[in-house]
Amino acid sequence: MVGADKHLVNMFIAANGVGKSASGANILTNIVFGPQSDWFQHPLFQKWPYLKRARIISDPTTIKEKIIPEIQKWFPTNESAKLPIANFEMGKEGKNYVCKITTNTGWVIDLMSTEQDAKEFESADIGFVWIDEPMPKDKFNATLARGRMGIIIVWTFTPLTFSAWIKNWMDEHPDDMDHVEAEAEDNCKIHGVRGILEHTNIKRMMDAMPEDEREARVFGKFGHLIGRVHKLFRRKIHVIRPFPLDPKSYTTYMALDPHPRTPDHVLYISVNSKGTKYITGEIVHQGSVKELFERMKAFETTMNYRIEGRIIDPSAYNDDQHRKDPSVGSQFFDLGMHFVKGSKDLMAGIKRTDDALNYEMKDGLMIRPPELLYFSTCPVTIKQTEEYVWQEWKGTAKDEKKANPRPKDINDHQVENKHRILLSEPVFVPYSMRYDSGYVGKTLAEEEESLDPYAK
């Protein structure tokens, strides 16, 4: 990812013990001294295109106890250099940790602490930055401004403190960044790839870890999302690149969650003959029912969907006695789009979704794939799935009561749509010639009422 130089920020988001600092030190080594092994035969390492000025940013303890030892371990010495002898010098310049490294390949590398004032991050133009562990947003923005001559940033971290704004930045800047994730088991001798950790040691660490840190330290998940409802969801497992949908091979179901004051959310799930379900489309819309209807029909045509069922929040059929307008469901009915009321069983929806997300891996290979996958073109649904968390009791109730049994009722619209579709048990319906003559699909209830053989 780094060697291709396609993204401004390249993130390695990982649990403790996976090798984040070693990875950062190796990337720096192969930039400063050129490729040191076959693993680094990529354009960025072969011919560095930016300024030979680098910056390493972390907290003072990590710099002293982790980063400097890793650099000393991986930087080539006179004896080990495969290229012409490349020496380096380290200086503290009055600090209690090394704050500057110079090499005879022309590089100057500053080491800065996240405890330094934000103004100190404003100086000098830089070509490469390695950030180790999370950092405050203002200092990150100041760092970005140092890249006016061209820059690439590598960020290795376990997402604990300062992690909430980082997750939001990632979601808001998908074209500026890329990332890889790793959990402790990825470095396991049994379950990982080229792993070095004993599985029993990982298990002991996980069992002893407090729950409010386990997600980050063991699974590499953002610390501010402690208490996630759908803990089985993993981007690297469940998110895939989109592919064209052949209506003969996929049956599509949609769900609508309308709201009077917040945007309406529409979700599409397509099912193949094997029962694998793909979240293939989403719409977030602010406007009239008529406008949403036109937008949905246009989107469905573009996606080549064969719609077999439409589900809506039951409240969409509630008439408002203070308004003359009919209910949302009635308005869609008048436009020719028919919905059935979705389930309101929250706990059943959560369990059904967890069942669909479940998978099994062994020795780094997928033994049993998940039933549910997400197109990467559905960022709202992905984000809401990741940030769907349980409520927490406040005050003394926090210590006196059992865990709150309900999720937070915020930004959960696509999650509820997903629950409702899965609870309806969507199935693949074989293609029929009737679709070639302008058939636009019926609701599941209508299909069953007409005893259509394809409905089951």
Q: Can I get a quick summary?
A:
The chain is α/β, with parallel strands linked by helices.
* Poorly predicted ranges: 393-404, 437-456
Question: What is the CA-atom radius of gyration, in angstroms?
Answer: 26 Å
Largest sheet: number of strands, sense, barrel closure: 8 strands, mixed
Tally of extended strands? 17
The backbone outline, from C-alpha atoms, is elongated
Give the N-to-C terminal Cα separation. Answer: 46 Å
Helical content class: 25-40%
For the residues shown, what is the average pLDDT?
83
How many helices does DSSP assign?
Answer: 15
Structural class: alpha/beta
Strand percentage lies at 15-25%
Kindly report the spatial arrangement of strands forming the biggest sheet. 3-4-5-2-6-7-1-8
Secondary structure layout plus pairing:
Layout: E1 9-14, H1 20-32, H2 43-46, E2 53-58, H3 60-74, E3 88-91, E4 100-103, E5 108-113, E6 128-132, H4 137-144, E7 152-157, H5 163-172, E8 177-182, H6 199-208, H7 211-219, H8 235-238, E9 239-240, E10 251-257, E11 264-271, E12 277-285, H9 289-303, E13 307-312, H10 328-334, E14 340-341, H11 346-357, E15 360-362, E16 365-368, E17 372-375, H12 379-386, H13 397-400, H14 413-423, H15 444-449
Parallel strand pairs: 1-7, 1-8, 2-5, 2-6, 6-7, 9-17, 10-13, 12-17, 13-14
Antiparallel strand pairs: 3-4, 4-5, 10-11, 11-12, 15-16
